[in-house]
Amino acid sequence: MSKALDGKLALVTGASRGIGAATAIALAKAGAHVVLTARTAKDLESVEDTIFQSGGSATIAPLDLAQSDSIARLATAVGERWQALDILVLNAGTLGSLAAVPAIQPKEFAEVLTLNVSSQAAMLAAFDAMLRRSKGARVIGVTSSVARKPRAYWGAYGASKAAFETLIGAYGDETAEISAIRTAILDPGATRTKMRARAYPGEDPHSVKAPEVVAERIVALATNGFAPGHFERVG
């Protein structure tokens, strides 16, 4: 039986666990071939095995997006094998330390901005040509509520996500009239992830939704499409 995303190529960053892993598995179940990227090869292999066991297909690409040449090498490798990229899920990110604004450490803040902002811009630049060759490319950026509603002690992370949203939105505005690329920003809300456990160490993880709930919504966006500049929050 045909599936909604048969013949589509997807790339998911931060695919070794949490929302990224669940999204990769869900996209593969819908028929897409999924390129999985994250720093830890062992965890990526586990996600890949899950995809294979359910009859899907995937390729792992272990790398650190914060390294200057890693994204260019990834784009070259993907471009040598496939002509177009249909779905790009920008999920990778880092929390950094939660601290009052006067206590933000410049070195750590720079590291947060590198992964959450600079690396995302590099991903869009590196895969722009492949996205433009798709008949209906979808770029979905995973954000946080603190990007739009500042919260005490979340200044560094919130600022990085606000910048990330601006990049995604600007890219979508630039490409909407001259290509089939559409961009969306998705706020997953409270979700059972390692990052949330770090931010809320006393919280019962079963009191918040599983990553698979968010993954289902991302697959729906990738399958059904959306208007330019789409934003939504998963309740």
Descriptive account of the structure:
This protein has 235 residues and is of the alpha/beta class. It has a 7-stranded parallel β-sheet, with helices on both faces. The chain has a single domain (9-233), classed as 3-Layer(aba) Sandwich (Rossmann fold), CATH 3.40.50. Helix 2 links the parallel strand 2 and strand 3. The protein has 7 helices and 7 strands; from the N terminus they run βαβαβαβαβαβααβ. It has helices spanning 18-29, 41-53, 70-81, 106-132, 155-175, 194-199, 211-224, and strands at 9-13, 33-38, 57-62, 87-90, 138-142, 182-187, 230-233. It is globular and about 55 Å long. The two termini are 32 Å apart.
In short:
The chain has helices at 18-29, 41-53, 70-81, 106-132, 155-175, 194-199, 211-224; strands at residues 9-13, 33-38, 57-62, 87-90, 138-142, 182-187, 230-233. The chain is α/β, with parallel strands linked by helices.
